[in-house]
């Protein structure tokens, strides 16, 4: 836990306001140094997935030339939303430090509690209708993957 890294994540969030983005910033740290930064690029890039943490993870993965960010820590100016939290898990990041809470984000109009509430619900009870189809056809690719001997597992 190094306040210097959180200062930088917060600075990324603050500087991003002048660039037309949302008030969120994040940095990825490895071996005691910042290897990547990110700020929210949703509106600027017209990319709904370009949250600060996702942008920082993409930059860190590019920098390390690896999809596995184990050994890294992320400092984010706000508690991660469910998408970013998932991305952090997929990236195998060791530890998360956050500054603002999700309640703070909710208070300024960024409410991700709906998504947190949706996840534990049964599929049929969620707001966005979701239907399984052509499962047998899709399973063929899963079968091929299982049998593939030269795959890169993650
Ligand atoms: Zn997010």
From TrEMBL:
Keyword Hydrolase: yes
Family membership noted in the UniProt record: Belongs to the cytidine and deoxycytidylate deaminase family.
The keyword Hydrolase is assigned to this record: yes
Alphabetized UniProt keyword annotations: Hydrolase, Metal-binding, Zinc
Gene3D superfamilies reported for this sequence: Cytidine Deaminase, domain 2
GO molecular function terms noted in the UniProt entry: guanosine deaminase activity; zinc ion binding
Annotated CMP/dCMP-type deaminase domain residues: 1-111
A Gene Ontology BP annotation from the UniProt entry: purine nucleoside catabolic process
Name of the protein this chain belongs to: tRNA(Arg) A34 adenosine deaminase TadA
Organism annotation: Soonwooa buanensis
């Amino acid at each position: 836990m190094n306040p210097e890294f959180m200062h930088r994540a917060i600075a990324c969030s603050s500087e991003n306001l002048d660039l037309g983005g949302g008030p969120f910033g994040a940095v990825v740290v490895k071996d005691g140094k910042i290897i990547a930064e990110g700020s929210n690029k949703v509106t600027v890039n017209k990319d709904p997935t370009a949250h600060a943490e996702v942008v920082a993870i993409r930059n860190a993965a590019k920098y390390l030339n690896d999809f596995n960010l184990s050994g890294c820590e992320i400092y984010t100016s706000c508690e991660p939303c469910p998408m970013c939290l998932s991305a952090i898990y997929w990236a195998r990041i060791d530890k998360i430090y956050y500054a603002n809470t999700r309640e703070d984000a909710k208070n300024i109009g960024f409410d991700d509690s709906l998504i947190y509430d949706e996840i534990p619900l049964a599929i049929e009870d969620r707001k966005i209708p979701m239907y399984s189809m052509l499962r047998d056809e899709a399973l063929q690719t899963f079968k091929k993957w299982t049998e593939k001997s030269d795959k890169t597992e993650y």
